[in-house]
């Protein structure tokens, strides 16, 4: 009967893997003015939507960071629940979720994305 005590489920009050991933994502989002969670890298995007998102950010000339979700399966799944948005790429500006590539494109074409960057005081790429 004593051996059964070792088979107990982990303490439900302690942090879970999901909590740790969500905290990692929050740290990334909150420590960068502009961050894009994408498939691939800016030089080698691995999907058309990520490529379009990078092109928009490059046209805006803002400083940004990227996270390649293909390199970390936990981040890839965790970002979807973090934002409650099912697709990647995902853009965050000053800690706030903006949207995916379609929303970025609509905002860019309307001048709203550039205005958002200006209003938020996002630095230009140097």
Report what the structure shows.
With 126 residues, this protein is of the alpha+beta class. It has one domain: Glutaredoxin (3-Layer(aba) Sandwich), CATH 3.40.30.10. The protein contains five helices and four strands; from the N terminus they run αβαβαββαα. A four-stranded mixed sheet has the order 2-1-3-4, with helices on both faces. Helix 1 crosses helix 3. The longest helix is centred in the N-terminal third of the chain and has 14 residues. The radius of gyration is 18 Å and the shape is globular. InterPro entries: Glutaredoxin, GRX_PICOT-like, Monothiol_GRX, Monothiol_GRX-rel, Thioredoxin-like_sf. Belongs to the glutaredoxin family. Monothiol subfamily. It comes from Sphingobium herbicidovorans (strain ATCC 700291 / DSM 11019 / CCUG 56400 / KCTC 2939 / LMG 18315 / NBRC 16415 / MH).
What's the topology here?
Elements: H1 17-30, E1 34-38, H2 48-60, E2 65-68, H3 73-83, E3 90-93, E4 96-99, H4 101-109, H5 112-119
Parallel strand pairs: 1-2
Antiparallel strand pairs: 1-3, 3-4
Helix pairs in contact: 1-3, 2-4
Quick recap:
With 126 residues, the chain is of the alpha+beta class.
Show unreliable segments.
Answer: 1-11
Q: Name the overall outline.
A: globular
Measured on Cα atoms, how large is the radius of gyration?
18 Å
Tally of distinct domains: 1
Just give the CATH class. Alpha Beta
Domain Glutaredoxin: 34-98
InterPro entries: Glutaredoxin (IPR002109), GRX_PICOT-like (IPR033658), Monothiol_GRX (IPR014434), Monothiol_GRX-rel (IPR004480), Thioredoxin-like_sf (IPR036249)
Family: Belongs to the glutaredoxin family. Monothiol subfamily.
Keywords: 2Fe-2S, Iron, Iron-sulfur, Metal-binding, Redox-active center
């Amino acid at each position: 009967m004593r051996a059964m005590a070792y088979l107990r489920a982990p303490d439900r009050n302690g942090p879970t893997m999901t909590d740790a991933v969500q905290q990692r994502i929050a740290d990334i989002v909150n420590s960068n003015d502009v961050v894009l969670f994408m498939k691939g890298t800016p030089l080698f995007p691995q999907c058309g939507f990520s490529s379009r998102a990078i092109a928009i950010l490059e046209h805006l000339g803002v400083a940004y960071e990227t996270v390649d979700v293909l390199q970390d399966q936990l981040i890839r799944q965790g970002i979807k629940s973090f934002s409650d948005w099912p697709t990647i790429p995902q853009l965050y500006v000053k800690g706030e979720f903006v949207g995916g590539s379609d929303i970025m494109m609509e905002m860019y074409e309307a001048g709203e994305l550039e205005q958002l960057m200006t209003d938020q005081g996002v630095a230009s790429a140097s």
